Each structure stands twice: as C-alpha cells, then as structure tokens.
Predict the 3D structure of the following.
Amino acid sequence: MSAGFGLERIGLLALRFPRATLLLIVLITVPLAYFSTKVGFSSDIREIFRSGTVDYAKFQLVEEQYPDSGQDVLLLIRSDDLFTVKNLERLRDLHLELSFANGVRDVVSMFSARHPPDNAGGAEPLFPPEITEKDLPEAKEAILHHPLVAKKLLSPDGQTTLFVIAMQPYPDIDDLRVVASELRDVTERMLEGTDMTVQYSGLSFLRLEIVSSLMADQMTFISVGFLIVLLISWLFFHSITYVCVAALPSVIAVIWLGGITGLRGTEVDVMSGVVPALVIVLVVASSLHLLFKVRRELAEGADVYDAVDRSVREIGPACVLASLTTAIALFSLTLVPLKIVAGFGLTAAIGTAIAYLVTITVVPSLAFLLFSRVKKKKSLGNKADLAFGAASRCCHGVAHFALVRPRLVLGCGLILLVGAGILYSQISPRYQYREYLPERSPAHLAMNAIDDRLAGTENIFVHIQMPPGARIDSPESAELVNKVDGIVAGLPLVRSVTSLHGIESWAVAGEMTEDQFFGLLQEAKTPLMDRILSVDDNSTLVTGYFPGTDAADLLPVVKELESKLDKLRAAYPGVVFTATSLSVLSAKASYEMIAQLNRSLLLAICLNILLVGLVFRSVRAGLYCVLPNLLPIMVVAGFLYLSGLGLQFTSVVAFTIGFGIAVDNTIHILNYYGLMRSHGRAVRPALEETLTTIGPVLTVGTVVLISGFAATLLSQLPNLRLFGEVAIMLLATALLANLLILPATIAILEGGPLKKSGSRH
C-alpha cells in the first residue's frame, strides 16, 4: 500500500472517468450551494465558554435567578452639562419611552433613584414631577451622592449618564435587529435638538456587531482568498487553463463546506469564521503540488493523460498524508471541553477532508479535459517563468548551504530550539473576552467610554444562596451580605459595589427602620431590586464593577476573593458563596483552555510523528519531523513572550493548525527524497534534487498559505487577526526549517560526514 493508504486512487478513478466525475461534482455542489445560504451566525459571546464544567454551571445558575444580568442594552449619554432643565426633562421622557419600547423588560437610570423611604415605605422620586431651575442644585447634589447612582449610572462630573435596559432574550438575530432599530429611533427622537450624544453598547448590540463583523469577514476571507488563488496561479503558470484548474476546486470546496455546515445546523462563530480561508489555502497548496508535477511531466514530453496519472501516483500519496496530519491536528482540538473550540476543530477537520476530496477529484479530471483541448501542448510544459525560476534558484542556494554545513545548521537549530523553548516555558496566558468583539465598533468604543467615565463594564458577582430554613430577607442575612460587600469593595480593580447592603443603608437613612425594611423586601419588585435580590430563590447578589482587565490581572483578584470567601464558608457552612460572572468565567476558562490546548497540541505532535514514521516505515522519518516542525512553534512562542503579547488560546489554536500544515512540507520532502533514493540516487544528490524540485513548490505553497491567512489581518475581530499573525509567522519559520534543518539532519544521519568538495556516497 502507498504512503497515502491508497486514497490517492480516487484521483486515478476521476482521471479515468473525467466527465462522469465532474458531473457528479456538479450534482453534489448545486444542493450544497443552496444549503450554504442557510448557515447562521452565532453572536453570543457567552457561547465561547459554554462547557460542562462546574464553573459554567455556577454561571448558569446566576443567570437563571437573575436573567436581567445577561441581556442588557447600555445607552451612554453625554453632554457638557446634563443638568439643565431641558436635558433632564428629555432624559426623563426618554426613560419613560424606552420602558414601553418593544422587547424591553425594564429600564434603570438615574431617574430610578428615590429619596430614602418614610416609615410607611413610601419613597418619592429624587427628581420632582416638574423640574425647575430652582430644583437643579439640590437635585444634582443628591443624585451625585446617591449610593445606587454615583459612579454606576452618573459620572462624578455630571456629564455622563448610563441607561441600563433589560431586554427580553432574542435568539433570532433578525428580531433583535428590529428591536435595536426601535431603541435607536426612540432615543434619537427624544434627544433630537439637544447637545446630548448617545452611544449604544451591551450584549444585545454587541451581538449585532459580532454578526456584522462575521459576515463581513466571511466575504473578505473568501474574496481575498480567491483573488490570491488567481494571482498566484497566473504568476507561476502564465496560463488561463492552469488558473482555471487551480482556482475552481477552491470555489467548490468552500461551497461544500458551507453546505455541510448548513446541513449540520452549525452556526459560524468567532472562531470557525476562519475555516473557509483555511480550506481555500489547503486546496490551492495541494493543487499546486499536483499541477507543478503535471507541468514537469509535460515539459519532458509526456502526453496529458500520463502526466496527470504520474502526478496523482507520485504526489497524491503525499497530499493524502499531508491532509491526514492537518486533520489530526485539527481533530485534536475536539478533545478540549469547550464547545466553541471543539466545534471549530471538528468543522476545520471536515473542511480539511473536503479540501482533499475536491482537490483529488477535480484537479485530475479537469486538468485532463482542459489540457487535452489546448492546441499548443508545449505551452503547458513551459517552465520559463521568472517567479518560479527565482524560487528554484533560491532553494538551490539554500540546499547547497545546508548540505555543505549540515552540522552548523543543525547545531544552530538545536540552540534556537532550546532558547525559544525556555522562553515558551516562561510565557504567561493573557486573555480578555473583548478580544472576540469588533474593537473599532461603536459598541466597543462605548464600553471603553464607560470604563473611563464610570465604574466600568466588567463585573464580578458573589452569589449568596441561603440554606433552607434561613431567610434572605432577615437581619442575620443582611449582616452576612454586609461582610461580602466589604470584601468585594476592598478588592483591587473594583471601583463600585451594588448589593442589598447598599439598599439597606439607603433605606434606613430615612425614616424606615430595619424591621420595616426587611418586612417590605417580600414586596420589593423594582427593576433595581430584581438585579440584587431573589426572594423566591432565597438568594442575593453582590456585584463589584471594574474596567476591562486582562485575565492575567483579574485571576489574582479572583483568587484573593475566593480566599476570603473560604473563611466565610467555614463560618457559615450552610450558606453557598459563589464567585462568578462572564469576566470571572472567561479568566478561569482561558487558563484551563490554554492548558487543554497545549495538551491537544502535544497529542497532535506525537500522533503526526508516529503517523509519518509508520507510513514511511522508518523511525528516522518520524524523528525527522520533530525539529523542523517543533522549532517554529517555539520560535513564535518566544516572539510572543518577548513582545509582551503573552499566550492567548487563539495562539495555541494557531500553533496546532500551523503544526499540522507545516508537517505537510516535511512529508512532501520525504516523499520526493524517497522517490529519488528508490531510483538509485545517493544521499546528497537526492537531497539536492529534492530541494531544487520540491523546494520551489513548497515556497509557492507557503506563499499561498501565508497570503490566505493574511486575509484574517483585515478582520474586525482582534482574535482572528492574532490567529492570522501567529499562523503567518509559524508557516514562514516552518518553511525555512524544512529547507535548512531537515536536509541537514538527513545528510548527517544518512550521508555521513560531508565536506565542501563533495559528499560521501
């Protein structure tokens, strides 16, 4: 059996029946094109951390008891002076109008603030029914120092205020667009003619912007990818016929990927959005290997059928093995217990299989049919093009350098591996869930403004669940809440705290006694209270607010909080204290995710090395993969450490994918080198012939891969740009390692000592 497990014979079958093959491709493509239009887009950033872990279960519990905490729309309104009669009246009218808008559950703003209640429980609104110039100084002073408003809903300078709108959950993005449009219309109408400006944010608006970014990215990745295919194909072949054969399979593969994604009912998310670009570059890289071989055969006088047949027989097994190594690397991601990463791994692995199947069927059949119709057959085998010639000369020079000084090259590679590995061991994980948000979007800019002017958009919840028999609306529970409030307020980063303790302090500042306050809690159903207390669930929520923070800075704060809560857990064994929130969950999950991804990367490395060794029936062949493909990962990780970017799980995903693709270079070199050796060539001539012949193809393939991944640099999502940057650096380093270190290693282990004047055969 061949190195491709006989799977390359699919290409031979397609070559034997080219018209039937292409007809079958068309019959499959048409319905899949229809289903590709049904693919949806996932926009809920909480899906990033969906898993079966205990931490996620705790987060879900809080969301179930306090549903308003996850569906907010934030309106940030600014003016040089909010406290004019006109501005305040417009803002109060806006509060009222928004309350009646479609899909709105409730609205919290500074107009929700009230004076402390009297002994009967009545609490007058802080702003009088009719606001006059005379009322302004007193109202401004009161609201700026109101414990539930200051820094949370109103900036200390009185120029910025926040409206928090609790929305009904809208899983359908089209419904959400309608609701968001109504909110914008109401807000703009109510603020028209004033000097006030508004910015929209919150998870609902972020969902819309994420979907818009994903849709724009999909169009960018696919269109730029196809453009690159056309340019690269024309640059190296100077033939419309070759361009068609190289480009058409990538179009078909993307359609198949979209159709199968639609049939699976899988949505495109902030990670899987890059898969079409990945599929395009994989198809083109394999197509180029096959077509370059066809061109060489045609240049040597073979007829079209024989040229394509030899290409499939000699290059096809390497393409199979390259696809397998990439698929193994991607499939290893499915072992990560996070839905978004596992889903990405599965989708990308399916995409890799599609890429191979389309390439091995379409390229041979289409090449035979089109090339057979070309009248000037000599033009099909013409090698005289500047780009390929330059690549060939460069690779020949690299091969000569590596084979003349193999020990120097290998020694430098080992030193670089050790040094970069030390840096890799020192790198610390870094992560913010905002990396999955379009950073230049209005909603993201609004979040930055809230961080700058108010308490911050991030929060940390301490959920207090009282045991059966103990009531949350009691003085004893209030004392416990007071302790937790003090702990959260004392944490680094936290700027402000909202809790039942703050409500109690505000209430008893008036004429109400503590007993009266607790007696009214059963009936307290205001929007603000619903975010703090759940009498039905016998629980309460203490919320600390802080600005956007990296996981590396937030985790020590979470650990400090957990340490202090442990003391309360020991003192109150029946009470359950849970520290959670999206920020906390993302910080914890990012570290665990990176650890899981590192394990999956190690598994992918081991499996691919084992696979290469088994296929080539050589332990040496497997070992040859280690240094040239492990070195790029270490070098790029070292760069991330030195640049201060840290290790994000997007980077580790790129490592895994990059390794799977980089091994392809090793496989093609080993495959062709094996063919040369089987033809009786000695070690050094075989290596020189391999690098001179295969090197330019690998260079072109890497250029295609890099160009394809470069499209991700145009993404509005920082995580996708980082993915592209890491992948590009890794692929470029892997090419150099395979052209330098791999032949030097083979020369030392198989060829004996080499001298400048020649080699020992």
